Amino acid sequence: MRFWRQLFSLCLAFGVAACSPALDWREYRPADGGFSVLLPQKPAQSERRLATPAGEVLMRMLSVRVGEQVLGAGFADFPTPIAAPLMDAMRDALVANIGGKVDAERAVQAGAANGREFTASGTLGRGDAARPGRLRARLLGRGQRYYQLVWLGGPDDMSAADIDLFLASFKIE
C-alpha cells in the first residue's frame, strides 16, 4: 500500500511540474454552480442570456484571460434534460464564434455528468488583428444542468498539460 501512495505522489509531482510555473492555479466554486474548477488566476464572473433550441437560458460564467487566451467555466439550467441535439447546438455555436471547424471529438464523463470534449480550429480576432485560433472544450449535462469548460487561444499559447489540468479539474459537488 505504501508503494502505491509513493508512486501516486511521484506521478502527481511530475504532473504539476509539467504545468507552467507562471500560472497560479486555484480552486473556484461559483455560487449556485454545484461544481469546482481550477483556474490560473481570480476569475471574472458574468451572466448572459442565450437563445438555444430549448429556449432562452441564463448562462453563468467564470472566466480568466491569460495573455491572448481565455479559460472559462460555466453552467445553465435548461427547461428539459440535456440531450445530444442540444449538445450539438452548443458545440456548433462555440465553433461558429471562431469561424472554425471541429478537428476531433470524444465522449467524456465527469461524475454523474455525461457529454463530450472537442477541439476546433478557426480564427481569433478580426481584420488586421486576426490570427489562427484553437478551441478546446468540454460540454457536460446532468439532468437539466448544462456545464461548459472552454479554453480559447492560439496554437502555442498554453501547454497541453495546463489545458488538461484545467479540464480535468472540473468536479461536480
Walk me through the structure.
By secondary structure, this protein is an alpha+beta fold. Helices cover 23% and strands 48% of the residues. The strands form 2 sheets. A 7-stranded antiparallel β-sheet has the order 3-4-5-9-8-7-6, with helices on both faces. A 3-stranded antiparallel β-sheet has the order 1-2-10. Strand 4 and strand 5 form a beta hairpin. It is globular, with a radius of gyration of 17 Å. The model is unreliable at 1-21 (pLDDT under 50).
Q: Sheet bearing the most strands, described?
A: 7 strands, antiparallel
Strand order in space, largest sheet: 3-4-5-9-8-7-6
Radius of gyration: 17 Å
Intertermini distance = 28 Å
- Average of pLDDT: 87
Quickly give the structural class.
Answer: alpha+beta
Q: What is the β-strand count? A: 10
Task: Please render the helix and strand layout as text.
Blueprint: H1 2-18, E1 26-28, E2 35-39, E3 44-52, E4 55-66, E5 69-77, H2 84-97, E6 101-110, E7 113-124, E8 131-142, E9 145-153, H3 160-168, E10 171-172
Antiparallel strand pairs: 1-2, 2-10, 3-4, 4-5, 5-9, 6-7, 7-8, 8-9
Write out key terms for the chains shown:
globular; 3 helices; 48% strand; 10 strands; alpha+beta
Short overview:
By secondary structure, the chain is α+β, with helices and mostly antiparallel strands. The chain is 23% helix and 48% strand.
